[in-house]
Amino acid sequence: IDLALRHGPLPDSSLTARAVATSPFVTVATPGYLGRHGTPATPAELEGHACVVFVSMNQVRPWHFRMKGEGVVHYPRGRFRTADAEQLRAAVLAGLGMAHGPRWLFGAELASGQVKAVLNEFQTPPLQISLVHAAGRRPPARVRALLDFIVQELPGNEFLR
Is 53 strand, coil or helix? Predict the structure, then answer.
């Protein structure tokens, strides 16, 4: 792999990283789901909701929020679990529950009204998006061209705001 796009904190590694954008997180559900189950007013109210759970390395990825300046962590519970972002998106669109994920994943659906963002006032700061490539050598021209293109185009993407 010549170049990879990473979302979130980068572990120490032998890779060279370049920050290219940030990605806010949103908590979303379909209007139908919210109509049937209600809209949570605080992160604590998520306990009563079905959640579409993202799993990474067999671990449930927690949902992070800020309340009164303090960090709040919610460990979602739900019958639908996946390690695939597109499956997460599809499950939300099918009305299976609420999800917490990067805004770019739900950008088109948020714009069209297919999903609604909830708990906006409790969201944490956005996560960094980085491009990584092997360290210690200059990337080939094709990789540098792609890197330069992404650096130019990605920050202006409407779904990253």
Answer: strand
